[in-house]
Design a protein that fits this description.
The complex is a heterodimer. By secondary structure, chain A is an all-alpha fold. Chain A contains 14 helices and two strands. Classes of the chains: A mainly alpha, B mainly alpha.
């Protein structure tokens, strides 16, 4: 199924199905019936897509715009809005908390995404060999994906506990002093990134695996005839062939990293909303939640939300540029 | 690469064939990568171990007393307190209610998504209408809008309506999502021959009959996979439920767990982890039973336009 979807997705637009025939009267139905029939053909598509667009309009588009409007106002929960122009945004750029949260979101994003995707590539490569027990490995590495953020974080919070956690216990076997995974900045960010990495590595590996299986074998045969080693084949055949998939996972992971919320919140326990005792792992989403639901300044919280949207648009723009460049390159070379 | 050897390239129409590695002799030895060496097995076994160990340890911790869990060295084998902890978690910390709520939410969202996504996916794949391509682009674009952009107004609305801690405030915004529409469109694009739809039309079938007698039967396997994926996603959904529901009011499992983690109710970590176990076990059971289909669904759904 994966392949078929891919073929449809990657290829040029599928040939448009021929237009539905206008009502040819086979049994000469009444004019009224044919009118009804034409109405059915015309209106049905819109009826079918209406639930999605109504849901999106009500719970996606309208709130998005309204959040933008709120971000230009001073609003408290239940209170009147007061025009403030761009003050909420300039207030952010003056705020150490904002820059701290932005930096944390970025560093946790890098620490969680880069090793995750590299490990996923390696795992996919290994899973692509002829294996005994292939199904077991696939389901096993996907099991973390079935675990919720909350459950996974609660387990890892125990494993990473500074005083009695198993990870410090294990490090202790090698004479390494107990690491303060909760209060120190980098250890805490690494611990949180570990949770993200644990949940998503297997998922990404399976996506890569599906892409690798679609790589035509002739490419490998040609490379082998040229005397390319396995490693060389991996670098110059596998990686370029699945580049669109890699780009896709990078974008999805980046979107996820920008929104990171549940892991640091629950990892921090009662200090979670602030992102630790010294905000050492407060992300943009946590700061937005704190502004909106603890401080009660909805205008500022809305401004943070819009900053996140702008960041994601930036990511999307870069992605579009890269994939266009890639397409040009492959187009020129083939 | 083993599979690439056996599987015809996509355009050769090999899509229905299962990737069974069955071939004669040395046909595919060119790359020299057919069989996995021992190192491959070691690395994969390690990956499986690290994937499964936290889940196993969750069970271990849930079967000890709270005092034992916070003692070093951590327990590595299951204890005998599981049922005591389950009883406490179920009755005192409202995990029972949370489990029911989560089942209602995830079940409703999965069913409505499958229904609406199939209708919309069919329209985008096989029906002609003005603005189809632009509307499809809009559907895909909505996938990138993060929930952070909508929660503030939505929270104001549900406060206004008195819907805080009511399940409909979690269900309604996720009745149908772009991912599902796109997923079904991709499937029907290939799986449903347009002639079938036209033949039904010629026979005078109206749209409702076509949906019922032509589209649904063809789409059924994809609908099942989509329903499963959405069920998992909805079961584990956190950000908006955490805002719309409260841990002590009428929570879903994830919201209740967040409350437990923040130290509401209990500081007994064995009970907290028993809560985590209750939230995880149903989905793991689904995975154990239907793992292969989940794997197939994820790889199919992940491929974008």
């Amino acid at each position: 199924m994966a392949t078929s979807v891919r073929a449809a997705a990657d290829g040029s637009p599928p040939p448009a199905p021929p237009a539905p025939r206008p009502a040819r009267r086979r049994k000469a139905p009444s004019a009224w019936r044919s009118k009804l029939y034409r109405l059915d053909v015309k209106a049905t598509p819109y009826t079918f897509i209406a639930p999605f667009f109504l849901t999106f309009a009500a719970f996606g588009l309208f709130p998005l715009i309204y959040t933008g409007w709120l971000s230009l106002h001073r609003v408290e929960l239940g209170g009147e809005a007061e025009w403030r122009g761009l003050e909420n945004y300039t207030g952010l750029t003056d705020s150490d908390f904002f820059w701290n949260a932005l930096a944390n979101t970025f560093t946790i994003g890098v620490i969680s995404t880069v090793p995750q995707l590299l490990m996923a590539l390696g795992l996919a490569h290994l899973l692509n060999y002829k294996l005994r027990g292939r199904g077991f490995y696939r389901v096993a590495i996907l099991a973390p994906y079935a675990t919720s953020i909350a459950a996974a974080t609660l387990v890892f919070a125990q494993l990473f506990n500074t005083d009695y956690g198993m990870i410090n216990g294990f490090l202790g076997l090698f004479g390494i002093d107990a690491v303060n995974w909760e209060t120190e900045k980098w250890p805490a960010q690494i611990a949180i990134s570990t949770i993200v990495t644990w949940r998503w590595t297997g998922y990404n590996a399976l996506i890569y695996l599906a892409a690798m299986q679609a790589v035509p074998n002739d490419l490998y045969e040609a490379a082998a005839l040229d005397g390319a080693s396995r490693w060389r084949q991996f670098i110059s055949v596998t990686i370029p062939s699945i580049r669109p998939t890699i780009l896709f996972t990078v974008v999805v992971s980046t979107i996820g990293a920008t929104q990171l919320f549940g892991e640091p919140l629950i990892f921090g326990g009662s200090l979670g909303i602030g992102g630790g005792s010294a905000n050492q792992y407060q992300t943009l989403s946590l700061l937005m939640y704190e502004k909106g639901w603890v401080t009660g300044s909805l205008g500022q919280a809305s401004a943070i939300a819009w900053v996140m949207l702008l960041l994601l648009l930036l990511v999307g723009g870069v992605q579009a540029l890269i994939s266009r460049r890639n397409r040009k390159k492959t187009g020129a070379s083939s | 690469m083993t599979h690439a050897l056996t599987k015809a390239p996509a355009e050769a129409g090999g899509r229905r064939k299962a990737p069974v590695p069955r071939r004669g002799g040395k046909a595919g030895r060119a790359g020299g990568q057919n069989h996995a060496g021992p190192l491959t097995y070691i690395v994969l076994a390690l990956a499986a171990f690290f994937s499964l160990f936290p889940l196993y340890w969750n069970l271990v911790a849930a079967s000890h007393t709270g005092e034992r869990v916070v003692q070093a060295p951590s327990p590595l084998l299951p204890g005998d307190q599981l049922f005591t902890n389950l009883e406490i978690a179920w009755n005192q910390v409202h995990m029972g209610q949370a489990l029911i709520n989560t089942t209602i939410v995830a079940g409703t969202v999965a069913m409505s998504t499958v229904l609406f996504a199939t209708l919309a996916g069919f329209a985008f794949a096989k029906l002609q209408f003005r603005g189809r391509n632009i509307l499809l682009a809009v559907v895909i674009a909505t996938m990138t809008v993060p929930p952070q952009l909508s929660v503030i107004p939505l929270y104001q609305i549900i406060t206004e309506l008195g819907w805080v801690d009511q399940l409909q405030s979690v269900i309604l915004p996720t009745l149908v999502a772009a991912f599902g529409v796109f997923f079904m469109r991709q499937f029907l694009l290939e799986a449903l021959p347009v002639e079938l739809v036209e033949a039904a039309r010629m026979d005078g079938a109206n749209s409702m009959r076509i949906i019922w007698h032509v589209v649904f039967p063809v789409a059924r396997p994809a609908m099942a996979v989509l329903g499963m994926l959405i069920f998992v996603q909805s079961w584990n959904d956190f950000f908006w439920p955490f805002i719309a529901l409260t841990p002590d009011g009428n929570p879903t499992l994830q919201v209740a767990l967040a409350g437990l983690g923040a130290g509401n109710h209990t500081v007994n970590h064995a009970v907290v982890l028993t809560g985590a176990l209750i939230a995880t076990i149903p989905l793991l059971a689904v995975f154990a039973l239907l793992g292969k289909h989940v794997v197939g669904g994820i790889t199919a759904g992940a491929v974008k336009s």
